[in-house]
Amino acid sequence: VQLQASGGGSVQPGGSLRLSCTTSAFTLDYYAIGWFRQAPGKEREGVSCISKDDYTTYYSDSVKGRFTISRDNDKNTVILQMNNLKPEDTGVYYCATDTARLCAVGGRYWGQGTEVTVSS
Fold this sequence. Notes:
The protein is an all-beta fold.
């Protein structure tokens, strides 16, 4: 089972990107969903995650106030809107099903990753 992540690209600092996570295999609304990223030479970290049922959200301190996670259930998609991007946001972004411990380790199903590069 694969999740499909898309929307990455190259932007200048201060720019915006909108990442999307979807799948045809199951209904995303039945799962907590998370966005994780891995920067070159660094460990993977949870960036932003959203629970099922009450849609509780989590943001890492580094992205709080700049990123917004949301669900579009009509399109079976989870969106990560990234604004005011910084060079340190560079990395490969993965979407995944998540656990009750939002953004801690991720769950069973993962996407293939979409690359984000923030550089002037």
